[in-house]
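Hi everyone,

Forwarding the result from last night's run.
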Amino acid sequence: MLRINSQCLTPALALRTDMDQLIADVFGPPHDAVPTMGGRRGHPAVDVWEENDDYFVALDIPGLSESDVKITALGRELTLEGAPAEAEENETEQADTLREKAAATEVTYFHRERNAPAFQRVIRFPFEIDVEHVAGHLEAGVLTIRIPKAASAKPRKIEIQAC
C-alpha cells in the first residue's frame, strides 16, 4: 500500500490556494465568472460568445416571458434575473394548490425537471461594455442579448506622423 505523507502535500496545497487567489484577483470571485456550460439547478444554460465589436449571450428560459426577466448592465458585468410570474405569489398557497390538484387527479411523477425556479446569473466580460446599448430578444424560450463593447475596449488605429 502506498502511503503519502500529508506534509509532502502542503506545498502543493499552498500553491493551489495561491493560484485560486490569483485567478480570483484577475477574473473576480468564482460567482462572478463567466458561467459554465449547462448551468445548474436554478441556473439556466448560457452560451457567451464574441463577434466583431459585440458580445452575445444566449440563455434558455422556457416558459418565461419578457416581463419575467430583468437585465441590468454595469461596468463589465451583465446581471440576468428571472422568475415566473407565479413565483411572485405566495409560494405556500401554490404548493397547497398543487398538492390538492395532484391528490384529486392522482398524479404520480416519476421524474420532474420542468419547474422554473427563480434564477440570477452574473456574467463578467473581459472589457467594459456599452451599457446604454444592450438589447435583448426573446424567441422560442431563448433569450439572446447583444452587448456592444465600450469604445475603450475596441481597437483603435493610431496614425503615425512624420517629422
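The mean pLDDT is 77.

Cheers,
N.
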